[in-house]
Amino acid sequence: MSSIAFIGLGNMGAPMALNLVKAGHSLTVFDLVPAAVKGLTDAGAKAAASAAEAVKGAEVVISMLPASKHVEGLYLDEDLLGKIPSSALVIECSTIAPDSARKVARAADVRGIAMIDAPVSGGTGGAVAGTLTFIVGGQAAALDRARPVLEKMGKNIFHAGPAGAGQVAKICNNMLLGILMAGTSEALALGVANGLDPKVLSDIIAKSSGRNWATELYNPWPGVMEHAPASKGYAGGFGVDLMLKDLGLAAEAALSARASIPLGELARNLYSLHSAGGSGRLDFSSIVNLVKREQD
């Protein structure tokens, strides 16, 4: 089994790291939050006092961080690449700007370090269950090296293309997800405003041409799905501010490529309004509350 350094033990990183421990890998972990580290050391991982200490002698380095500035700060500003063994493989799982992923990948290549960007889809539930989808950018040979590790954390692995391509594909997916959730919320709110039962309407949509992931697996209306965040006060899951971040990345990518994303920009504005109203830490499916308030 591989000796792995895992940096970033947030809502996604912690269960991903835990699955690697359960699979028998030797894990050294680092996070700025002591409680997050303790959760992994209680499961059998070794704690490191810093990211630099964590990567000493590592065969694989995995990072799961909040944003582009954190990834660039870690690998470039703090020069973690200069402390990683040249024989190691770096798997960067954060969702960041494609240009940032390419920038860090170029720096790794200069040092002779193999690196892939491998953002994930599947949410915290998928991270816990080990059923995440990895969307990979980088060289095929590096992905082949990564597969035995990725397969302990995920169910589907896609090679999107060269460095940064994983980020582009992830951004496209999440932009569509944000649009779908906003549209689903609007449709359900319209139905309820006209006297329909939200569960009945959801069942109808799930068997009709409007069917989508939100209505079938992550319904935004409270009480329709017992295990969805909507039925738990919109706690946990994928936060509004995280969705807003990803929609912002989509806007940046569109500007860079001179592409048109009118629905993506509309969704970004809706989530921005929702966040500004104090809902930034709620699950993104709480966007339904923005529509419901407009109808009240």
Layout of helices and strands, plus pairs?
Layout: E1 3-7, H1 13-22, E2 26-30, H2 34-41, E3 46-47, H3 51-54, E4 60-63, H4 68-77, E5 89-92, H5 98-110, E6 114-117, E7 120-121, H6 123-129, E8 132-137, H7 140-150, E9 154-161, H8 165-193, H9 198-206, H10 213-217, H11 240-257, H12 262-279, H13 287-295
Parallel strand pairs: 1-2, 1-4, 2-3, 4-5, 5-6, 8-9
Antiparallel strand pairs: 7-8
Helix pairs in contact: 1-2, 1-6, 4-5, 8-11, 8-12, 8-13, 11-12
Features:
alpha/beta; six-stranded parallel sheet; 13 helices; three-stranded mixed sheet; 296 residues; Rossmann fold; 51% helix; globular; 2 domains
Describe, in plain words, how this protein is organized in 3D.
Belongs to the HIBADH-related family. Pathway: Amino-acid degradation; L-valine degradation. It catalyses: 3-hydroxy-2-methylpropanoate + NAD(+) = 2-methyl-3-oxopropanoate + NADH + H(+). Keywords: Branched-chain amino acid catabolism, NAD, Oxidoreductase. Its EC number is 1.1.1.31. It is a single chain. The chain has 296 residues and is α/β, with parallel strands linked by helices. It folds into two domains: 3-163, NAD(P)-binding Rossmann-like Domain (Rossmann fold); 168-290, N-(1-d-carboxylethyl)-l-norvaline Dehydrogenase, domain 2 (Orthogonal Bundle). 51% of the residues lie in helices and 14% in strands. It has helices at 13-22, 34-41, 51-54, 68-77, 98-110, 123-129, 140-150, 165-193, 198-206, 213-217, 240-257, 262-279, 287-295; strands spanning 3-7, 26-30, 46-47, 60-63, 89-92, 114-117, 120-121, 132-137, 154-161. A six-stranded parallel sheet has the order 3-2-1-4-5-6, sandwiched between helices. It has a three-stranded mixed sheet with strand order 7-8-9. Strand 2 (26-30), helix 2 and strand 3 (46-47) form a beta-alpha-beta unit. The longest helix is centred in the middle third of the chain and has 29 residues, at 165-193. It is globular. The model has no long low-confidence stretch (mean pLDDT 95).
